[in-house]
């Protein structure tokens, strides 16, 4: 498989193998037909549903009463990055499969820009999830200092740093990406968008994979296990020894922890297969094994796209506050007798068991005017 396939996450070309084996015979094998059908018919559903879900998530998390909360701000930025990946990489892949037009090959400029955007959005999404998980870790393990360590100002700085770092790291594509001729039978225009970095450093694909998948996966696994351990440790705390504010805080932050734990573990589950198929690729000696390998590769790509499309549904499944805000978004306020206002205020400093950062959410009911 070519480097450009690794970087842009499209259907593998398997160039070296299909030049020897008959492409027409390959197309008659069931596994290969399933692979093509998945990309033509399933991928657009993922793109459409994921884009709509991400837009709704962004709207809800950026509501004035929510956006100044550090966790919700991270999730709003994650929705943007995920949408960019779906619309650029996913749509490009679907257009290629449906019309045989590869947008990477339109010009040298499109080759450079598309690879840059796709790689940047992948890295930013991964590290935003690491950042929000790290924020929850600090809130759980250092509740008395978390308010200062996870202030909204610092969250904006961390987000800006993540975006800036990965935009700069991937900016090399503007001078290393190039269109080259290829004998690949799956490329109608006989072109391939690749990078000179593979010539400069043979370990570049591995570095890219480690930065996107390996390090984030290890960090997420460690941080999540520590969060779970701390929550279970405090589970036996007697309610009679807790203030009313602490009980309220504990309930809210447990729900928030469930949302973030779900997102993190889903991210690991949907990205690791793509990494494993990248490092375990072997030469295939017959058409059947090649078709099966392509199917596994396509399934790993689909999981990757699902990762960038599924968060809205995870919020709906695990987030009570998100469901409330989503319902309010589509319901006419004039038909309600009461409306809910989310108020953020500091909890008492003399709290016996401050669970996370010293903020709580009060739901105040007011009559609509």
From TrEMBL:
Official protein name in the record: Thyrotropin-releasing hormone receptor-like
Any one GO cellular component localisation term in the record: plasma membrane
Transmembrane segments: 38-60, 72-91, 98-118, 156-175, 206-232, 252-274, 294-317
Gene Ontology molecular-function annotations: G protein-coupled receptor activity
Major localization class: membrane
Similarity section: Belongs to the G-protein coupled receptor 1 family.
Compartments it resides in: Membrane
Gene3D superfamilies linked: Rhodopsin 7-helix transmembrane proteins
Pfam family, one: 7tm_1
CDD domains associated with the record: 7tmA_FMRFamide_R-like
Residue span, G-protein coupled receptors family 1 profile domain: 53-315
Keyword entries, A-Z: G-protein coupled receptor, Membrane, Receptor, Transducer, Transmembrane, Transmembrane helix
Species the sequence originates in: Octopus sinensis
Membrane topology: Multi-pass membrane protein
């Amino acid at each position: 498989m070519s480097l450009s396939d690794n970087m842009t996450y499209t259907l593998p070309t398997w160039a070296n193998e299909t030049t020897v084996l008959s492409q027409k015979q390959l197309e008659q094998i069931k596994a290969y037909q399933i692979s093509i059908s998945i990309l033509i018919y399933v991928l657009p559903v993922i793109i459409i549903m994921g884009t709509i879900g991400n837009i709704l998530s962004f709207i809800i998390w950026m509501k004035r009463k929510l956006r100044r909360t550090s966790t919700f701000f991270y999730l709003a930025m994650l929705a943007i990055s995920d949408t960019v990946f779906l619309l650029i990489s996913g749509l490009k892949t679907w257009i290629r499969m449906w019309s045989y037009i590869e947008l990477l090959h339109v010009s040298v400029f499109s080759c450079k820009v598309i690879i840059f955007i796709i790689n940047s959005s992948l890295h930013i999404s991964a590290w935003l999830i690491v950042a929000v998980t790290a924020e929850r870790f600090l809130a759980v393990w250092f509740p008395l200092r978390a308010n200062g360590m996870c202030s909204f100002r610092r969250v904006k700085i961390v987000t800006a740093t993540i975006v800036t770092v990965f935009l700069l790291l991937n900016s090399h594509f503007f001078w290393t990406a190039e269109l080259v001729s290829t004998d690949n039978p799956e490329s109608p225009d006989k072109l391939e968008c690749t990078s000179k970095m593979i010539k400069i450093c043979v370990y570049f694909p591995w570095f890219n994979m480690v930065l996107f998948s390996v390090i984030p996966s290890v960090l997420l696994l460690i941080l999540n296990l520590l969060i779970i351990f701390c929550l279970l440790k405090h589970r036996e705390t007697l309610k009679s020894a807790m203030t009313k504010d602490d009980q309220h805080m504990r309930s809210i932050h447990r729900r928030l922890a469930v949302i973030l734990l779900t997102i993190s573990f889903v991210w690991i589950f949907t990205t690791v297969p793509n990494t494993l198929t990248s490092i375990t690729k072997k030469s295939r000696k017959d058409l059947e094994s090649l078709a099966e390998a392509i199917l596994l590769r396509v399934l790993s790509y689909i999981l990757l796209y699902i990762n960038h499309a599924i968060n809205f549904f995870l919020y709906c499944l695990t987030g009570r506050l998100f469901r409330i805000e989503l319902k309010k978004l589509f319901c006419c306020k004039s038909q309600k007798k009461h409306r809910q206002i989310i108020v953020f205020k500091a909890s008492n400093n003399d709290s016996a068991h401050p669970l996370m950062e010293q903020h709580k959410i009060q739901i105040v009911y007011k009559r609509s005017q």
